[in-house]
Design brief:
Blueprint: H1 3-32, H2 36-104, H3 106-114, H4 134-148, H5 150-167, H6 172-176, H7 179-195, H8 199-227, H9 241-257, H10 259-271, H11 277-312, H12 316-343, H13 345-353, H14 360-391, H15 397-421, H16 423-447, H17 455-481, H18 492-517, H19 522-536
Length: about 525
Amino acid sequence: MSLLKKFATVGGATLVSRVFGFTREMMMASALGVGPVADAFNLAFRFPNLFRRLFAEGAFNAAFIPLFARSLEEEGEDGAKRFATEIFSTLFIVLLVVTVAAMVFMPALVKTIIAPGLAACIDDPQTLGQQLSCEDRYAITVAFSRIMFPYLACMSLMAMVSGILNAFRRFFAAAAAPTLLNFVLIGVLAWCWWEGASQQTIGFLMSWGVLLAGVAQLLMVTIAMRMAGFSVALQRPRWTPALKRLLILAGPAALIGGITQINLFVGQAIASYQPGAVSILTYADRPYQLPLGMVGVAIGVVLLPELARALKAGRMEEAQHTQNRSLEFALFLTVPAAVALFIMPEPIIRLIYERGAFLPETTHQVAAVLGLYALGLPAFVLIKVFSPGYFARENTRVPMIVTGVSAAANTVLSFVLFWFYAEQGIALATTLAGWLNAWLLFEGLRRQGLWQVDMALVKRSALVVLSAGAMGTVVWFLMNRLSPYLASGVGALTQGLAILAIVAAAMAVYFGLALATGAADRSMVRNLLKGRRSKRG
C-alpha cells in the first residue's frame, strides 16, 4: 500500500468521524446554545478528551510503536506479546488508581485545573447565558466530570491496542473507533429532543453517553486486534527495562503530540472566567478539527511507522523522501482549507449551528474565533509532520523542550490577550503558539541534518500558496455576490446550496491550478488513477 493510500485510509476514517462530529455539535448547539449547561459539559468533557487526543491520536503510538516493532523484529511475536502484556498490565493499574483518585478529588480539580473561573464566579442575571447560579454551574460541572472521567482510562487502553494494530499496518479500526462516540451522542440528543428533556437532563445523559462510547471504542479495537491474531493478558505489573524505556519516551511524546489540545485546554481554563466563552471556543474548534483530523492525524499515524522502518533498515534517502512528500501532502490540503475557513467562517458557522438556542449574535462570536483558528491550521498539521522525524529516532528531548517553550508562550499570550479580546484573544494565542512550535521543530531537524528540503518541495509549496491565494479571491468574490442567500433567517437548504456552489467553484479553481502549475505531483495523481482503474477492471 502506497504512502498516499495509507494517508487516505486513516484520513478517510477520521473524516467520517469528524462529519458525524459535526452532526453531534449541530444538535448540541441547537439544544444547549452557549448557556451554562453547554459550558459545564464542554469543560467536563475537555479534560478526559485532552487525554484522548494526547494518546489515541498518535502520541502514545510515537513511544510504543518503535519499541513494539523492535520487539517484534528481534524477539518474534512471542517477545512482542510479552512486551505488550507488561505495558498493558502496568497501564491498567495506573489508570485504575488515577481514575479513583480523580473521582474523589474532582471538586478540587474543577476549581484549580478544569474551570478555575467557576471559583471566582459571581451571580449576575445580566451575564450572557446565566440561567443557573454559580453554585449550580459548579455542581453540574463536577457531576459531569465524575461521570466522564473513566472515559480517559478507556481511551488510554484503546491507544495501546491501536498502536499494536498500527504496527501491523492495520489502520482502519483505530481510526474508525472514535465515530462510535458521535453515534452514541447523536442518539442521546435525538432521544432528548423527542422527549422534550430539560437542558440539565440533556447534559447528564450526554455525560453517560460519553462513558458508554468509551467502553464501546475499546471493545471495537480489542476485537480488531484479536482478529489480527494478537492478544494481551492482564498480569501483576513488573518494572522492566522495556517499561522504563517506554515511560522515558511516552511522557515527552504525549506532551509534544498533544500541543494543540494542551493549548486548547489552557485556553478553556482561562475562558471559564467568562460565561459562554468556553462553548464559543468549543463550537469554533469543530470545523477547524475537520481538516486537522483528516490530514494531521493521518500523517501522524502513518508517517511514524514508515520512518521508523526506513531508518532501522538504514535507508536514509527513503526516509528523507518520505518526510518531504508528507510535508507536500500536508500543505497541499491544509493551506486551501485554512484560506477558506479564514475568509468565510460566518456562513459556515451559521449553516452548521444557527438554530434553536444558538442565536445570530452567537454566530458572529464563534465565526470570529474560527477565523483566527484557521490561521494556525497549517502549523498544527506541520507539527504532526515534523514530530515523527524525532520520534522515529527515539529522540524526545529536543521536541519536549520546543513544546515547553510553545506551551509557555501560549499560556502567557492567552492570559494577556483574553483580557483585551476575550475568547478571540485565546484563539489568537493558540495560533501564534502553534506556529512557534512548528518553526522550532523544523529548525531542530534542519540544523541536525535530519531533514533536507528538496527542490520539488520548495517549488510545489510556493505553487500551493499561489493556487490557494487565487482560490481565496474567488471565494471572497462569490461570498459577496451570494450574500443575500447566506444571511440569517434564510433557509438552511438555500444557505447550504450557496455554500456548496462556493466550495465547488473554489475546488475547481484550486485543483485546476494545482494540476496546471505542478503544485500537485502529477505522476502521483496518474498512478493513483491508474490503480483505481485497474481495480475496477
